[in-house]
Amino acid sequence: MSEPLLNVENLRVVFNTDSGNVHAVDGVSYAVNPGSTLAIVGESGSGNSVAALTTLGLTRGERTEVSGRILFEGRDLLALPDRELREIRGNEIAMIFEDPLSSLHPVDTVGHQVMETILAHRAVSKAAARDRAIDLLERVGIPDSHRWVEAYPHEFSAGMRQRVMIAIALANEPKLLIADQPTAMLDVTAQAQILALLEELQQQLRMAMIIITHDLGVVAEMADEVAVMYAGRIIERGSTEQIFAAPQHPYTWGLLKSVPRLETSRSEELVPIPGRPPSLIDRPSGCYFHPRCPYVRDQHRRVDPRLQPVPEAPGHVVACLLLPPERKRLWEGLEAGRTPEELRDSQ
Amino acid sequence: MDRLTAEAEDDDLQMASYTVRRILRAILLLVLVSVLTYVLFTVLPDANPPQSVAPGFFGYMKDVFLHFNFGYNHPSHQSVLSLVLTRLPATLSLVAGAGLLSVALAIPVGVIAATRRGTRVDRVAMRTALAIISMPVFWLGLIVLYLLASDVGKLPILPGANSYAGLTADPGQWFKSLILPWLVLAASQAAIYSRLLRGQMLEVMDQDYIRTARAKGLSEQSVIWRHGAGAAVPGVVTALGLDIGALLGGAVLTETVFRIHGVGLLAYHAVLRSDFPIVQGTVLLAAMFIVVVSLIVDIGNAWLDPRVRFA
Amino acid sequence: MSTGPSQILLDAEASGEPPVVAFADTPALSPDRLIWRRLRSDRVAVRSVGVIILLLLIAILAPLVVDIFGVTGPNVRNPSTLNSFGLPSGPSFSHPFGVDDIGRDVLARVIYGARIALEVGIFGTVIAVVVGTAIGLLAGFYGGWIETLLMGAVDVLLAFPVVLLGLGIGDACGGGGCAGGAIGPGLGTVIFIVALTSFPYVARIVRRRVASLREREFVLAARSLGASSGRILYREIAPNLLAPLIVYSVLLVPTNILLEAALSFLHVGILPPTADWGQMISAAGNDILSGNSAWWYLVFPGLALLFTVLAFNLLGDGLLGALGRRGQTDG
């Protein structure tokens, strides 16, 4: 097992706002190996983006408390001064964002925006940077890129803009790419194309990737490992096969069951997860998920579950107070088409 | 399917079409402005005996547009237009210098106040700006003269009122005499624009593309000035260009205080003497000037920011 | 000073959207109450309201205030205060603000000057808002050629530099009045100029708001339920206009007060012997430039102007902040 490229240890991020302290990330740990892909799954407001942004130091501010360690190739990114962190951003670790239209500078040509990244980290001439930019745009699938290099972002379609973002991110061949909901603003076709492009580039550059998403389809296609976040914590983590074949946490079940899959039988109902994500200022007692969990017991309101390994599944951990045999039964019941209410009442 | 938008192909066509549309609109505005001037100065006042409006109106329009005749000042045997033209350099000196100075002042103040939002620097800067905005520019001018004018001031260091000389006549004096007027007029304009710019900067710095710039690893200076200010400043400069009426108003008052023989002082003296043609002609010329300047600013803006061309 | 729209007006015009208050976790308060609450907690804004009320009282009760201070009236000349050269005396016990060049007590004149400033500022603004709102409503709601016509007229007016236009109209109407006597010389003319030059901004903002609201879902919903245009205007659109209009009006007042002072300074506004701040500054200016260093009747009217205008500007800033859009001063 090779040394992980990125090792997040017990990361905590708290924003001090006028309404109270927002515990966006509450003791999160994960690792990414070189060349592999980790998906961080969770609803909006679960802190998944914040963890990623903190990796690049993009959440630093006066009213932000960050603790823990983020080890990148052995260096703790959280301890680095801004100057050194800047050398890593856009260079060894790059990021692409959800909305390519607002994330690209509106009054700057696309080519120049790519060139900027190159010139910030490589001592090359402008002409050389421009050539490379044209190359990159071609590589991400923008045809006739020597013409498009002078165009402005608003002249492109959404999918093309995302390609430009990818070109910017990959300009300096980073070791790690963080993609924050890269396909959320795209239609289905563009989505497929962008994912395929990312996969291809990842192979070519042997790059590690962290994809933040709440689309399980994206997870299934791209990820090697999955971390499911809820209310600022990781509540389940494992390989993609483990998570899809034998998910352990009721929240994960809810996510899987709320999305139609090809195997879903016609009579089976889609079951959305009831309720709303909890406030990150005032979190529920005990298990954070207990207010929305169909199988909640009394004890769950008082005890805070820690991540425990799943028996016979190396590398698979879950934070749930239900016992493994119980969970197995419930999941198998859900797979067989029973509803959570039925299963709960039949205990 | 990813489609590259067709509009991207005819960049120049867009620009040309926008330019033509804007010019046509400006021409229409020039005509309408003349009509309104006529209404305000000839139809509205009771002092003039009620004459039939039509012949006077059409004669007037012919005069303005065909003969460029904006009135005649009988005592001095000069046309209004030539009078204005002789006074124009002084006003331009004042306005151009003050305009540039105000931008030079407003940009650092606005950007720094925004990046140091909430700190003492920010609060002091914005409160000072608000105080300057709340005082009449002519009062500020008089106070400055009272304190610093070489002839009447308490601390005589700079030439006071009535010391203006033309640029070609005496460059040194021209410059020295304009220092106080420039400072006064620029201060009052800069106060407005630094506040505007601060607001714009705060909005811009919140935008996603600033986050992208940071994620690229660019230096904070580059992010603030190139990306942040680069996006915020043009909007404010455009506002300045479009609000040139306010700048002209301030110029009129400054000329009156400092006795600079520009177009503003011309109009002021004409009012004191009840010299009607000059007043009317000056107002009309000023309005036409503003229409033309707005046209140039709009076209320049469209050239710089392509998104505007689709308006 | 701005003789056109102040920066805050430009800023207010630029945004067209109502603010979004997003506090998912706090109990829902209706937007109005939230704004009210925020406004009340803004100390500067509250103090400004206090100052404005005080100024209004002083203006309305001017004769009483003059008596309280025990100074002579605004038009009373006191020859004893002028020395042998005819030069006025400065601040003293009997004349706290000194006297002007012909012996009139400056404090009294400053107090009475508040009347003019506030009358013109407030009435002129009210007229401008009423006219501008009417035009903006019609143009924004009906669109089409009505909009083109009305907004075209507004654009034409906006092409004129405010001070010069005021100078011209003041000259034209200063002699014998305008519009068949409806606009008298002096106060009437000044109010006319103020209203004429400010209503276009109101019309623009209102039109933009109405035009954007017209397309919004709740209006389309009301229409589909068969509501008439009038009803829609009244129930759906008007309430959304109230808040920005109030803010804009508050911000227009200081601009108009300054415009009035500028017009008087240029001798086309309120004419002597009526006490008027702009006029006082003009007279003081003349004297100072001829070497007479009687600073008190330059400084005090100017401070009065500064104080008054600042109060309205601070209140306007506070209102902008309470509406959710950060004003240009954060606390």
Structural class of chain C: mainly alpha
Strand-pairing-aware structural class of chain A: alpha/beta
Overall pLDDT confidence of chain C: 78
Strand content of chain C: under 5%
Most residues in contact, chain pair and counts:
B-C, 76 and 70 residues
Which shape of chain C, going by the Cα principal axes? elongated
Using the CA coordinates, give the radius of gyration of chain A.
21 Å
**Largest sheet composition of chain A:** 8 strands, mixed
What portion of residues of chain C is helical? 55-70%
Contiguous low-pLDDT stretches of chain A (5 residues minimum) are none
Helix-strand pattern of chain C: HHHHHHHHHHHH
Tally of alpha and pi helices of chain A: 13
Short key terms for the protein model shown above:
heterotrimer, A: 347 residues, alpha/beta, eight-stranded mixed sheet, four-stranded antiparallel sheet, 13 helices, B: 311 residues, mainly alpha, MetI-like fold, 2 strands, 1% strand
How would you summarize the topology of this molecule?
The complex is a heterotrimer of chains A (347), B (311) and C (331).
Chain A: E1 6-17, E2 20-32, E3 37-41, H1 48-55, E4 64-72, E5 75-76, H2 82-88, E6 93-96, H3 100-103, H4 110-121, H5 126-139, H6 145-148, H7 158-170, E7 176-180, H8 188-205, E8 208-213, H9 216-222, E9 225-230, E10 233-239, H10 240-245, H11 250-257, E11 308-310, E12 313-318, H12 324-335, H13 340-345
Parallel strand pairs in A: 3-8, 3-9, 6-7, 7-8
Antiparallel strand pairs in A: 1-2, 1-4, 4-5, 9-10, 10-12, 11-12
Chain B: H1 11-43, H2 53-67, E1 72-73, E2 78-79, H3 80-115, H4 120-133, H5 137-148, H6 171-205, H7 208-215, H8 220-242, H9 244-258, H10 263-272, H11 276-304
Chain C: H1 7-14, H2 31-40, H3 43-60, H4 62-69, H5 106-142, H6 144-158, H7 162-174, H8 187-214, H9 217-224, H10 229-265, H11 277-289, H12 296-322
Helix pairs in contact in C: 2-12, 3-4, 3-5, 3-12, 4-5, 5-6, 5-8, 5-10, 5-12, 6-8, 7-8, 8-10, 9-10, 10-11, 10-12, 11-12
